[in-house]
Amino acid sequence: MKLNEFKKLVRPMIKEMVREVMLEEGMLSNIVAEVASGLMLTETRVKPQPRQNPDLDNYKQDLKKQAMVEQMKKSQPMVFENTRPPAGEPKAGKPLSGADPNDPGVDISSIVGMSSGNWGKLI
Fold first, then answer.
1. Which is more confident, 49 or 109?
2. Could you give the CA distance from residue 87 to residue 28 in angstroms, rounded to a whole number?
C-alpha cells in the first residue's frame, strides 16, 4: 500500500476521532475556558507604560548606532584600510586605464586549495 493511499484511508478516521474527543467529551470547552482565563490574567497584569518623547527615542537610537559603529571599528579592521586610490582617472573603453601598473592585484592561488581536492567536480 502506498503512502498516499494509506493517508486517504486513515485521515477520515483520525478526523472523526479528534472531533469526538474535542466536542463530545468537552475537551474543546476546557481549552477555551483555560485560554480565556489566561487572557483575563494577562490583561490585568499588563500596565501601560507612559510614552516617551519621540526626540528622546531618536536620540537613544542614535547613541546605540554610534556605540555599535565604534565597537565594529575596534573589533575588525576597516575593509579599505591601508589602500590608496588609483594613479589616474579611468578612461572609457580602456579597462584598467586608471590602475597602478605596479599593483600586485589579488592573489587567487589559494582558491584551488579551498575545494579540498574536489576542483574537478566543481567545474
1. 109
2. 77
C-alpha cell at 28: 474543546
Q: In the 8-state DSSP scheme, what is residue 2? A: -
59-94 pLDDT, tens digit per residue, is 888 999 998 888 877 776 666 777 776 666 777 778
Which residues lie closer than 8 Å to 96 by C-beta, 6 or more apart?
A: 90
Bridge partners (DSSP) listed for residue 91: 94
d(CA 65, CA 121): 45
76 conformational bin, left if phi > 0, alpha if psi -120 to 50, beta if neither: beta
Backbone angles phi, psi at 73, to 5 degrees: -65, -35
